[in-house]
Amino acid sequence: MVDFNNEPQSAIDAHGIIGDMRSAALINDKGSIDFFCWPEFDSPSIFCSLLDTPQAGAFQLTPDLPNARREQIYLPDTNVLQTRWLSDEAVVEITDLLVISEDIDDLPLLVRRVRVVSGNATIHLRCAVRHDYARTSTRASAVDGKVLFSAEGQPGLLLASSQPLQIKDAAAVATFTLAQDEGAEFVLGGEDDERVDSRCTDLVLAHTLKFWRGWIAQSNYRGRWREMVNRSALALKLLTSRKHGAIIAAATFGLPEAPGGERNWDYRYTWIRDASFTVYAFMRLGFVEEANAYMRWLKGRVSDCCGQPTKINILYGIDGRQELPEATLAHLSGHGGAQ
């Protein structure tokens, strides 16, 4: 039996990442989304159990296959992640993506698809949105067959499911059994987003796969270890802002540089030096538009300081803002206890 409430933290390297160039989510190899800031890279988290317990928010989706071997892969030439469970009883796949929309102003849309490749499997789900770094009380309510997560002063999120959902402890929960070749779909997005519909996942998956494969096909790299170079380029692309052209240093905050360490900074900002290295990598691979977009963003920052490059800041917000007040999230236990 799966015990979601007491699921231990996963190692940092036991995660894959998905993103839409507006936000990003981390997914561990047990099928839990344990880090997701929404709707922007630097917005407060809605899932933050990577830095605490599941009570800090998580989207847990896993088959009841305790002895299965687990693995994570990306669908070729994309940032669409697949987590697999392989056992004598069943083989199960969960495909995760943040949808690439044609409109850059669309809010991030999370899609999760579970499929039983062979055998039969019981699947357990728990989606516990916890707004504002889990500092705010989140309510869950049923709305037209979906579950709405709301909190005072915070954006509402809506969960659609092809399986019946129940509400328990302000979380959406479900347990269901799938036979071979059967599947289930789940979509999480803004409360007013018409795309939050579990019946439309085929279309948005196909569009997202096409985007990523079309983008990486523009690379001019033909040398050794091409697959690894392409994977690195795709990861860097995830850290770019499609709207602003900025490049963030990392999708996370609060993770220690060393186990138990105290250097747990927030890297969801544009650090001029780090971004310059990324631009250089893009240019070497032939991705000129990403470099140009960043330079346009940087030109705006130079203009902000009266055209004097020597007065440029070390880091900026993704949208170019300079005021970045520090805060300590003392209520989170930290990854591995590191605070």
Description of the molecule:
- The protein has 339 residues and is an alpha+beta fold.
- The protein has 2 domains: 4-216, Distorted Sandwich (Beta-galactosidase, Chain A, domain 5), CATH 2.70.98.10; 226-316, no CATH class.
- The chain contains 5 helices and 18 strands.
Largest sheet: 8 strands, antiparallel
What overall form do the CA principal axes indicate? globular
Compute the CA-based radius of gyration.
20 Å
Q: How far from one another are the termini?
A: 32 Å
Helix fraction by DSSP (H/I, runs of at least 4): 10-25%
The residue-averaged pLDDT reads 96
Secondary-structure topology with pairs:
Layout: E1 15-19, E2 24-28, E3 32-37, E4 45-47, E5 58-63, E6 69-74, E7 81-86, E8 90-98, E9 110-119, E10 121-128, H1 131-134, E11 139-143, E12 146-150, E13 157-161, E14 166-168, E15 171-178, E16 183-190, H2 201-216, H3 226-238, E17 270-271, H4 272-285, H5 288-304, E18 315-316
Antiparallel strand pairs: 1-2, 2-3, 3-4, 3-5, 5-10, 6-7, 7-8, 8-9, 9-16, 10-15, 11-12, 12-13, 13-16, 14-15, 17-18
Helix pairs in contact: 4-5
Q: What are the key terms here?
A:
5 helices; 2 domains; alpha+beta; 8-stranded antiparallel beta sheet; Beta-galactosidase, Chain A, domain 5
In short:
The chain has helices at about 130-135, 200-215, 225-240, 270-285, 290-305; strands at about 15-20, 25-30, 30-35, 45, 60-65, 70-75, 80-85, 90-100, 110-120, 120-130, 140-145, 145-150, 155-160, 165-170, 170-180, 185-190, 270, 315. The chain has about 350 residues and is of the alpha+beta class.
